[in-house]
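Hey, I'm writing a tutorial for new members on how sequence and structure tokens pair up, and I'd like a real worked example in the thread rather than a made-up one. If someone can provide the structure for the chain below, I'll link this post from the tutorial.
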Amino acid sequence: MKKVVILISFAIAFLQAESFTFYLLVPGYKEWLESPPVIKNLANDELVSMEEDADGYHGWFHYTWEKNVIPDSVLIYSHIDTLFLDPIGMNGFCSKNVSPLMMKMLSVIAGSKSFFFIANSEYAEMTAEVDEGGFAYFDVRPDVHYAKETSFTYYSKKLFALVPDYKEWIQETPVVVDAENSSKFWEMLPDEEFNGWFSYSWSHCSESPKSIYLYKKTDSLGISPIGANGFAYGETELVPLDLQGSESVYFYPDLNYDCSISEYECYCGGVSCYCGVQEPATWKNYDVRSVCQLEKNCLKDDFEPYYYSNKKVFALLYRIYSSKGELLVPEKEMTSDSNDVAIYEKGSFTINGKSLPNGDYILKYRQLSYGREMAERVVYFSVNNGAVVMDVLKERKNIALFGVKNIGKTIQISSTKLQPYTVLNAIGQVLDRGKVNGTANVMVPNSGMYFVKVGSEIHRLNVR
């Protein structure tokens, strides 16, 4: 009943509101910050300029509509993007799957006079008030904004590549080929300072590929690609190099070379740190050119080609929390050490209850494979005199654990507690509503973006 009252209150508040203001924290690039961005109404191509934040929160812009003229769907562009190439949409900036911002629907979901959207995914993680999609229903500007003294540059995606130290490569010019569309390719330019390095830069996000292969310029038939697994004689699995995780990628595909710099290899967050234990990567997101240049060892008499073993080395990293969310065991790698809390051996892991006092716990773990991070998973368990019982927290009636995912065109909603749910399409039409205690499956007619509200939580899904 309390939730119904809250929803009704939101609806009344929206109906009483004479206007709706959309706030946007733009990406941290010069073209977005030097002048207000432009909102394009997709229904009529009308353009309006946003206004810079008057409260001094650098990077924030806003626009206000009367409630009866809020557009259905919009995209937002920087003021210099006159060809409308790189929009901000529902998936933020620089998404390869652009979905419009459904402004009218957002105004209804917000249930208030204002709504806040952070297009910079790194900044969206700075406060718990912002959901995983970058949206906030409360004013987060005081907590999330740019420092005015920060120096910003224009957007650019850069790939740097060190040619393999083999005779067939050291006199070659590498060509970048889009892994998803081989008709798109770009010839790299030699680095004038660092021997053996080449580079290519894309000035528009829409033009940069998601993943790539490298070819020799003389390989007109495209029969010898190099992927993320590097270059060496012998069997190598062809895996494309992913360019989405960083603005600059430094690629050194020769498996004889290790270009890592030790002081950059440890990553810390909160009270936990992780230092690289996965298979040595063939790329870095920091500049390694000064310490890693072409040595032309292949021209030496004692040169021995490297043969790749094809062994897929990976790491499982885990953390232990109390049932109240208190971090008990900072992130560490699972090993076969029987004294650890989580033990990995022969392809599976177990939990050692003897190392924990009686109580309820949460284990979160993630897998690193070929330098790539897989989705984090969660295990709930309890300990009683050293014995471990799994999934105890999920069985508790006073704790609501729920999930939303899609399997094809079926949206699967699960909850351990009776809760109402609503499924909406991208323009805010209600497709299904009901209650779930266990699992509910909802078929949707088409691919696209959908919103699922479970209890008071809203989830966004891209159904393909």
